[in-house]
Specification:
By secondary structure, the chain is an alpha/beta fold. It has a domain at 65-106 and 232-425: 3-Layer(aba) Sandwich (Rossmann fold). Helix content is 41%, strand content 17%. The chain has helices at residues 39-43, 48-54, 65-71, 83-89, 110-122, 136-145, 158-163, 165-173, 187-195, 203-216, 229-235, 237-249, 264-278, 297-300, 343-350, 361-375, 381-400, 418-425, and strands at 2-3, 13-15, 60-62, 79-81, 94-99, 127-132, 151-157, 177-181, 220-222, 255-259, 286-292, 302-307, 316-321, 355-359, 405-410. A 7-stranded mixed beta sheet has the order 1-4-5-15-10-11-14, with helices on both faces. A 4-stranded parallel beta sheet has the order 8-7-6-9, sandwiched between helices. The protein is globular, with a radius of gyration of 20 Å. The mean pLDDT is 96. The structure holds pyridoxal-5'-phosphate.
Amino acid sequence: MKITLSENQIPKRWFNIVPYLPRPLEPPIDPQTGEPVSPEKLLAIFPEPIVEQEVSQEEWVDIPEEVLKVYSLWRPTPLHRAKNLEEFLQTPAKIFYKNESLSPPGSHKPNTSVAQAYYNRISGVKRLTTETGAGQWGSSLSFATQFFGLECEVFMVRVSYNQKPFRRILMETWGGKVVPSPSPLTQSGRKFYEENPEHPGSLGIAISEAIERAVTTPDTKYSLGSVLNHVLLHQTIIGLESKAQMEMAGYYPDYIIGAVGGGSNFAGLAFPFLKDKLTGEKPELQVIAVEPKACPTLTEGEYRYDYGDTVGLTPLIKMYTLGHDFVPPPIHAGGLRYHGDAPLVCLLYHEGYISAVAYKQREVFEAALIFARTEGIVPAPESAHAVKKAIDLALECKKRGEEKVILFNLSGHGYFDLKAYETYMRGELPDT
Ligand SMILES: *Cc1c(COP(=O)(O)O)cnc(C)c1O
C-alpha cells in the first residue's frame, strides 16, 4: 500500500530541467528599460545563491547538508498505492500518489522555504518578508526561518487574517510576525489603510508591501513560494523520490498529474519524469496540469509577457496569463488563484509536452470526498484538483479495460479547510 524510502535514501541533489528544454527560456524583462533584468536588480530582493539558481544551466544542484537535516524531519515522504480508491472505482488502473501532506506545515511548500531560509542565512540576511493568502506559504516560511535564526514577516491579506485565524496562529507559533495587509507599515499599504483601516486587501497589495519592506529595510530580503525557477528546482525532490519509489513498485507511470497554482508542486513531481519524455526515452508519457475553471491560466490564458504581481512591481515574465489585473472569483482552493504560471511549465505546455484541464469547484470537492472516504486523508482543496483528474482517468481506463498507471501529487492536506468541506456537504458551494 505504501512504498517508503529510508532516511539515507533522501536525494542529495535537486534536478534542473533547463538543459533539456526544447528551446531556451525567454528572460524576464525590466519594464523600465525593456531589456532583460540585470542581476543587480534581482540581488536587491534575493540573495546571491538564489539568483544563481534562478539562472542555472546545470542539470544537478547539490542540496546542502543543513537543508537535508531539516528535510529529514519529514522526508522522504511515502508513495501510496491507492488500492481502496481503485477498488471503490472498480478500475483496472493502478493509482499512486505522492504524499506531500506530511510536512509539519501540511504541504509541499517547505521543500523550498527551508532551502530559501538556508541560502538567505548564509548570505547574512536577518529577516525575510513575504505575502500569504490563506496562510499556506506564510506558515511554511515561518516554519523554515526558525531553523536558521531568521525573522519572518508575513503580510497576510486582511480578509483571510480575520476569517482564517488558525493558520495565523500556526505562523505565530513558529515565530512568524503576521501583519494584516494593507498595513500602515509601507507606502504601498498606507494609502489603502488610511482610506479604510478595515480594507479587505488582496494578494497583489500584500506582495507590494512585502517587496517594499525587503527593499527598504536593512538585512532584509523577500521570499516567493512558487513560479520562479529556483522554487521549482527545490520541489524536484518530490519527483526524484517518486521515481525511485515507482521503480521499487515495478511500474513507470503512464500519466502524471498535479494541481497548478504557480506550478511548483506539479513541476516538482513531473520534471524528473518529464526528462525521459524530452530525451525521447518515454515518448508516451502524459503529464497533466489541473487548474480551477475559476482561474484557467493554461487552458484559457494568453502566452505573453506580463507582470507577476497585480500592482506591476515585478519584472515582466513570459508566461500564460489571464492578465495581471485579473481577479478570480473567491474559490476555496486559494493556492490556485494566480493569474500566471511558472515560465518553465508554460514553455513546456506551449511546446506540447504538458497538457492541461480545468474543473469547477463542486466536481473537485466531490472527488475530494471520495478520496477522504476511501484513502482516509482529507486533501487540500488545491490537491483535490489532481485527485479529480486521477479519478476521471481511472474511470476512462475502466470503460476501455486498460491497466494504465496513474501517479498524482497529493500536495497537501485539508485540515485547515474544513469550513470549505462543510459548505460543500451542505450543498452551499457555488459551482464556479
Ligand atoms: C500553494 C499550494 C498549491 C499551489 O501552488 P503550486 O506552486 O502550484 O504548487 C497546491 N497545493 C497546495 C496544498 C498548496 O499549498
